[in-house]
Amino acid sequence: MATVLALAMTTGCSDGDGGEKETASASSVPAGLGSFYGQKPSWKNCDNGFECATVQVPLDYAKPSGEKVGISVIRLPAEDKSKRIGSLLTNPGGPGGSGVDFARQAARTFGDDLRRRFDIVGFDPRGVAASDPVRCNTGPQLDKFFATDASPDDQKETDTLGAASEQFAQHCKAKAARELPHVGTVNAARDMDVLRAALGDEKLTYYGASYGTYLGAFYAEQFPKNVRALVLDGAVDPKLSSTELLVEQAKGFETALRAFAEDCVKSGNCPFGDTADAVIAKISSFLSATDKKPLPNTRDSRKVTESLAVMGIARSLYVKQYWPVLRQALTQAMQSSDGTLLLALADDMVERKPNGTYSNQSDANMAVNCVDKPNPPDLAAYGKYADQAEKVAPRFGPFVVWGGLPCVYWPVQTKQAPKPVTAKGAAPILVIGTVRDPATPYKWAESLAGQLSSGVLLTFNGDGHTAYLQGNACITKATDNYLITTDPPKDGTTCG
Question: Which of 38, 167, 272, 332 could form a disulfide linkage to 279, CB 3.0–4.6 angstroms apart?
Fold first, then answer.
């Protein structure tokens, strides 16, 4: 599993009644970047009511006159032009998720009031999808990497995993050396301020899910005075180290698996046991057996290894509506020794297409995560965190933590230690946490809301990854009202 692979599944003046676009004030333009901030995107129709454009940003902000990166942008214009407030910039997470694809899929599922008053805008961050994408590995190379045993039982298996991870990093060094030093979150957040200005908004209105919360938090830290309203849904905790994030994420998946097990038992006729403990024990035994004897599938010649099986399970835990599919996939695998459905779920997780090609999500995910935080110095040091994770998250710990091992060998490293993000001076920022979120544990939302000087915590007492697009009326009403009026709900409000 790529590190912290976390995706949401599926600005103007205070009230905007005049409907006129605002423009970035000259004082808000950083030195040397006037030509970027002054861009006027050339919008073109790109089907189904959407408009698309490309916005230019510097590859290296220290050298603004040097090479440029084209940021792919899409928008669904506001339905009521007379009451338009501005743009609602969105990001679905990852890192590595395509914001353009997200907008195409999800823009019309945002609240009706938001759709009337905001252009819903998506963008592919630098290094992702259509924005100068980082591409390191071929389809067969990624197939091999994801099938590698990510819960090694001995030194030989550990060395094999280390070699596969080093190879991943070397592929990126060979094919993406130009982009790698510049794809981190700090630069992507700076790009967002260029986008804000290019969209004609004096201040930023933003919805970020999962890793998109990390991106939003870094935006607020760098540009606190440019914040109008930020929703950070399914928060990532900025102050944790790379390995601490992975250990905590693994625990989140364990929590979600128990919720699935309890739901299976409650629904009746659960094929895996009569208690949640029995269900989890059955799944554990199945994974151990798959480690020894991978399953065939009817899609292609690949074997469904333990790592691919865990990935398929993890994918299903992101969205509660996938739980019946997970039940079906596990039944097929356990009763018929057929890993077809589990493999389909795993492929969906990493955006593998039926023809064996991948999006660049996995390459970009690794590239961003590896440069954002310092990494352990070697395989032995890294292994200690995997051992720690296995103790607190027996099924997901090794899988999640070892998934970040390529970062040990990454050609670009940072020494900048993680620290809290305060965004001092920013307007109120709404942080949403889901109590049983598998990928971004609820405690991260509590932590981020506490770090931000103007953070407000909204809790969804539910399951699945992120809250806003799950359709809970309480969450929708509180979020939409905040984005429209900039008035957040009371800190500590709980929905669900």
Answer: 272
The Cα–Cα gap between 432 and 446 comes to 9
Fold of 43-133+180-239+419-495: Rossmann fold (3.40.50)
Owner of token pair 């598998």: 438
Cα 210–Cα 276–Cα 257 angle in degrees, nearest 5: 15
CA distance 196 to 73: 12
Rounded to an integer, what distance in angstroms lies between the CA atom of residue 408 and that of residue 376? 6
Residue type, 284: S
Q: Where in the chain is the domain with CATH 3.40.50.1820?
A: 43-133+180-239+419-495
This prediction's pTM = 0.94
Q: Identify the burial level of 461 via C-beta atoms within 10 angstroms of its C-beta, where 0-12 means exposed, 13-18 middle and 19 or more buried.
A: middle
Residue 171: active-site member: no
CA atoms within 13 A on the CB side of 479: 33
Joined tokens for residue 283: 């799944």
pLDDT confidence tier of residue 39, bands split at 50, 70 and 90: very high
CA-based diameter of the chain, in Å? 67
Catalytic residue among 132, 237, 437, 480: 437
Task: Establish whether 465 is a catalytic residue.
Answer: yes
Look at the alpha carbons of 442, 444, 450, 456 in this order and tell me if their dihedral is positive or negative: negative
Active-site position among 87, 98, 165, 210: 210
| Catalytic residue status for 437 | yes
Q: Across-strand partners of 45? A: 51
Q: What pLDDT does 6 receive? A: 53
What residues contact 156, with CB distance under 8 A and at least 6 apart? none
CB 237 within 8 A of CB 4: no
| CA 166 – CA 161 distance, rounded (Å) | 9
pLDDT at 7: 55
